Amino acid sequence: MGIVLNTSAPFVHSADFPGRIESTIDAALRFWSGSWDDIDGATIFLEDNQYVTCNISTTALGCFESGAIHITTRDPGLGTWRCVEETVLVHEIGHAVVGDVNHDDPRWMDFVPVLEVLNGRSGYTDGGETSCPIYVNVWRHNLHSP
Predict the structure, then answer these.
(1) pLDDT tens profile 20-58
(2) Mean pLDDT for all residues in the chain
(3) Sign of the C-alpha dihedral, residues 5, 23, 123, 53?
(4) Which of 34, 90, 102, 112 has CB 3.0 to 4.6 Å from 28, enough for a Cys bridge?
């Protein structure tokens, strides 16, 4: 698995970033009943852009397409995320494992088990270390809709 950092988000420059992205992916894989084999050969792109392009949408916060996961490091309302756990990575790992572009699996609305694993970690801003509140609504998606 490769990681491409097309972002200036402070959390990607923190010393703990490699372990944090790995543990976030691992928690997501366990939630989705997946394994590291499900993302073998994939590349994760962390982008500075407010949105990433996904299929026909130009306003997605993340996207999984044939071996590539693209996620923005910015929230439209809150600005730059403080940590990788706040991004839509957990959601996009779900697409890598189960597909389900129509979000029919009920797990799209229940991310509390992942929150319990990842909650309480530090975040980073240009000013240094800070809190990193996780908002599970970022990971959720209305059922039965693309």
Answers:
(1) 999 999 999 999 999 999 999 999 999 999 888 887 777
(2) 92
(3) positive
(4) 90
**Calpha distance 86→7 (Å, rounded):** 15
Interstrand relation of 2-6 and 43-47 (parallel, antiparallel or unpaired) = parallel
Q: In the block, which residue shows the tokens 């490769």?
A: 2
User: How would you write 95-144 as a 3-class SS string?
Assistant: HHHHCCCCCCCHHHHCCHHHHHHHCCCEEEECCEEEECCCCHHHCCCCCC
Counting every residue, how long is the chain? 146
Q: Give the residue extent of every domain in the chain.
A: 2-138
Angle between helices 17-31 and 89-98 (to 10 degrees): 50
2 vs 70, 72, 117, CA distance in Å? 12, 16, 24
**Which uninterrupted H or E stretch holds 89?**
helix 89-98
- Give me 71's structure tokens: 């996620």
Coil vs helix vs strand at 54: strand
The H helix count followed by the E strand count for the chain is 3, 10
Specify the residue for token string 């309480």.
Answer: 120
- Name the CA radius of gyration of the chain, rounded: 14
Tokens of 23: 């543990």
